Amino acid sequence: MRKTIWIPVFNSCFMIGVGIGSFFFGLLSDSIGRRHTLLIAILLCSGGSLVGSFVPNYWSYAILRILVGAGSEGCYIVAFTMVLEIVGVKERLLCLEWVSFSTFQGNMVMIPFAIGMILVSMAAMVLSN
Questions:
Q1: Contact between residue 18 and residue 65 where contact means Cβ atoms under 8 Å apart
Q2: With 77 labelled, which of 7, 19, 20, 85 sits at a CA distance of 20 to 30 A?
Q3: So what's the pLDDT on residue 43?
Q4: How sure is the predictor about 14, in pLDDT bands with cuts at 50, 70 and 90?
Q5: Average pLDDT, stretch 76-82?
Q6: Residues 6+ apart with CB under 8 A from 83
Q7: Within 10 Å of residue 61's Cβ, how many Cβ atoms?
Q8: In 3D, which of 39, 46, 53, 81 has the Cα closest to residue 67?
Q9: CA-to-CA distance for 105 and 84, rounded, in angstroms?
């Protein structure tokens, strides 16, 4: 099989993991708590990425992409929920009265992820083959 066909397969596996993680980590955070669930999600995401660097074949990498997708979605969902629970819903932004402060803070959780994606894209442009 050609190597070029694997790139969309890996992306699809990651998105399958995101779907699984959004369901699984939501239930898990309700049963064992948000902090423990966030730790599990971080370990799953970083461990899957680390092990994925050393796997010998494509199928094992695809399975690890599912785990990384689940862990990354778990990190996002649990962190977003923790921010919303800490801040509360009564405060409003002064410049945007229809936006609550908790929603704004919850969305600010994604800024480090966006910066990381920008840095990886810039590194890929600089370090091309």
A1: no
A2: 7
A3: 95
A4: very high
A5: 86
A6: 102, 105, 106, 108, 109
A7: 20
A8: 46
A9: 7
Lowest mean pLDDT among 10-14, 44-48, 124-128: 124-128
Q: How far apart are CA 95 and CA 118, in angstroms?
A: 28
Phi, psi of 100 (to 5 degrees): -80, 155
Using CA atoms, how far apart are residues 65 and 18, in angstroms rounded to an integer? 10
Residue that the structure tokens 């939501």 belong to: 26
3-state helix, strand, coil in the chain (%, to 5): 80, 0, 20
* Amino acid type, 52: G
pTM: 0.73
- How do residues 85-119 score in pLDDT, each as one tens digit? 877 666 666 677 666 766 777 777 778 878 988 99
Measured CA to CA in angstroms, residue 92 lies from 80, 82, 108, 121 at distances of 18, 18, 15, 35
CA distance 48 to 119: 20
- What value does the mean pLDDT of the chain take? 85
